[in-house]
Write a structure and sequence with these properties.
12 helices, 0% strand, mainly alpha
Length: 277
């Protein structure tokens, strides 16, 4: 949701344009105190990690409560166990960091955490061993706690938190103002496609009506017609015997016509010729 920052700038610009100076001041103050960090996942993770590193239990619980009321509580029931697991993993990271930062496990930050979180955690089996943490020397070597002191486990918790927030923010319903950019991009894409189709249709129409287009269509077949064409003799398949027979029939026909010339029909004279005789 990186476009949230751009929308904030648009709102601020509009308020200045309208001359709402007092509103602009209040808007700027709210942005500075924005716990959602403009829905930037990296900023939210950094804020949580800050509370862990400085052993600020009150700040960590308050910030997580804000996220819980904002988004986590609205998730489906089957997702809640995964959210709770990440929350408890952050608490364990808090204890490990507190134990390492002060040079020992018997410190006030660890004891403070266990005393304040006792009502919430004492009934859970996975936390029974953690109440023994202040009394264990070198917990990073203890089989029950050694995993939590590794960099790999701590990084996996932060990655899981990052993925959870990114997924939730991606699925959150957004106000109309924040979706205008994606809508504008979609409209621009559709307009470009329509313009391209119109240009293609106009070009096809010109190709069909213009002489140049007609010539271009003829040129498509020029390669086919320009090659040597085989000469076909229609008579090459006529046998020689048939040719001789045809010649004989032609001679017989001429003889028949000569004979017919001497017949009464062909040799009958006109009255004019008789009078001349």
């Amino acid at each position: 949701m990186a476009h949230i920052q751009f929308v904030d700038e648009l709102v601020r610009e509009y308020l200045l344009f309208r001359g709402f100076t007092s509103t602009v001041k209040a808007f700027d103050n709210d942005l500075k105190a924005d716990k959602d960090k403009g829905f930037r996942v990296d900023k939210i993770v950094d804020q949580i990690l800050h509370y862990v590193n400085v052993s600020d239990l009150a700040g960590l619980k308050e910030y997580w409560s804000h996220l819980d009321s904002l988004v986590f509580s609205k998730l489906e029931v089957h997702v809640q166990p995964a959210v709770r697991k990440i929350e408890y993993s952050l608490y364990k990271m808090y204890l490990v960091t507190a134990a390492q930062s002060t040079g020992g496990v018997r410190n006030e930050k660890v004891s403070e955490f266990l005393s304040k979180m006792l009502p919430e955690l004492q009934g859970q089996n996975e936390w029974k061993e953690w109440f023994m943490l202040p009394y264990i020397q070198k917990p990073e070597e203890n089989p029950s706690f050694s995993l939590y002191f590794t960099r790999g486990w701590q990084d996996s918790v932060l990655v899981s938190l990052h993925n959870l927030l990114a997924t939730v923010f991606q699925c959150m319903p957004q106000p109309t103002l924040t979706s205008y950019e994606s809508d504008a991009t979609l409209v621009k894409k559709l307009q470009d496609e329509i313009t391209a189709l119109r240009g293609k249709m106009q070009q096809q129409s010109l190709d069909k009506t213009s002489p140049i287009g007609h010539q271009s269509r003829l040129a498509q077949y020029s390669d086919r017609l320009s090659g040597p064409m085989p000469l076909v003799d229609d008579f090459c398949a006529v046998p020689a015997e048939q040719l001789d027979s045809g010649l004989r029939e032609a001679r017989g026909l001429r003889g028949l016509l000569r004979q017919m010339g001497g017949s009464p029909v062909m040799g009958r004279k006109t009255p004019r010729s008789q009078s001349q005789n």
